[in-house]
Amino acid sequence: MKRKTSKTIPIDESSRDTRDASDLEYRADELNYLLKVNRELSNILNPGDLYSTLASLIKEKFDLRNLAIFVYQDASETYDLVYSHGQDQLDISFKKDDSLLWQTIVQEQPFAVFDKSGNPLFPEVFKKYGLNKLKADWWIPLVMRDEVIGVLAIRHKDKLKHFSDLELFILKQITSHAAICINTCRLYEKRQKEKEDLDKILQNLSLLYSIGKAMNYISDLKSLLQYILSQAIEITSAEKGSIMLYDLESDRLMIRVLAGLADEAYQEKVNNNEIKCRTFKPGEGIAGRVYLRPNRWWSTILVMMTCSWSQSLLLSIPSPVSPWSSIMMLLA
Question: Which end of the chain is more exposed for a tag (fewer CB within 10 A), N or C?
Fold first, then answer.
């Protein structure tokens, strides 16, 4: 009885090499994309620019319809929606809690927020924080050193499409680097704020020193007030200003010197006390309210000035950065 010999199926080496080369080329393209993302994000120090650049890089790569970015805010201890694309302007935030959603977020892995039937997997917490308004199917935590900096929420243009494992892996790598960049922006903003505060303190100290020095050789009240006003205007880069005196007998604030008015003749008459301007009671108007709530360092000058005069001073300097029409500062 003859033995049957098995047939050997020839292997198409050229086809396998083609597949390997194609796969290698695909992975090289993905690596180049990740390097591009890192380069684009690493040089941005403005949070708004960072969010928009991150969104642009991701939505084009993955053909997204909707995208939202949440970032943790230290002041409110909430994750606030800081950027959105493809949906209405929303004001949404959520907190760390013991919900299943948060427990899923801290796993630091991309996850779906709807099941295959389109039902929400976290209905209670979504309703609680209004997250059901978001048009997103997948959430990817932005994590840096085990700290959740924020969350990226996305939806593909094709609602039926599921992201592949490789796509989710790439998204995770992007969000990991984005978390570092967001933290860098926050630290940069914090340092800038500290520098601005320090600069203000140095300016204030410089003004205090100049005023104290001037008091030693300027005996005329009008000249001293004009000097104080000119120094304050210079420091704040204002265009004009005024100093108001508090009169103990009438219990009112009165303008004593002006600077920077277009009508120099009128200004000179006011400074020479030839024209009586409007007066304010403490607590009346912006000047009166500020008078009752003196800044601590201006109160230092209050002590200095009361040694020479029985009147108090209020410096009013219009400023474009103030929420009021002018900045009010107590000088004495």
Answer: N
Structure tokens at 331: 């000088």
Alpha-carbon distance 195 to 315, whole Å? 25
Angle between helices 47-62 and 13-42 (to 10 degrees): 160
The percent of residues in the chain predicted with pLDDT above 70, rounded, is 81
- Reading the block at residue 195, the tokens are 């520098």
Residue 165 is inside which H or E element, if any?
A: helix 165-214
The C-alpha atoms of residue 186 and residue 177 are separated, in whole angstroms, by 14
Category of 278 on φ-ψ map: left (φ > 0), alpha (ψ -120 to 50) or beta: beta
- For CA atoms 89, 91, 93, 99, give the dihedral sign: negative
One fold for 23-189 and 219-330: yes
Geometric angle at alpha carbon 301, from 298 and 304, rounded to 5°: 160
Q: Which two tokens stand for residue 316?
A: 């009013």
Spell out where 215-251 has E strands.
241-247
C-beta separation of 131 from 125 below 8 A: yes
Domain spans of the chain? 23-189, 219-330
| Nearest residue to 38 via CA among 166, 156, 181, 168 | 181
- Going across the sheet that includes 327-330, the strands are 279-280, 252-259, 241-247, 312-317, 327-330
pLDDT class for 2, splitting at 50, 70, 90? Answer: low
SS3 167: helix
pTM of the model: 0.64
* Residue 177 pLDDT level (bands cut at 50, 70, 90): very high
Q: What is the mean pLDDT of residues 256-283?
A: 87
Contacts of 185 (CB under 8 A, 6+ apart): 44, 45, 46, 47, 50
**CATH topology for 219-330?**
Beta-Lactamase (3.30.450)
The token pair that represents 241 in the structure block? 């200003």
Higher model confidence: residue 204 or residue 121?
121
Concatenate the DSSP letters of all residues of 207-220 into one string. Answer: HHHHHHHHTTT---
d(CA 120, CA 98): 18
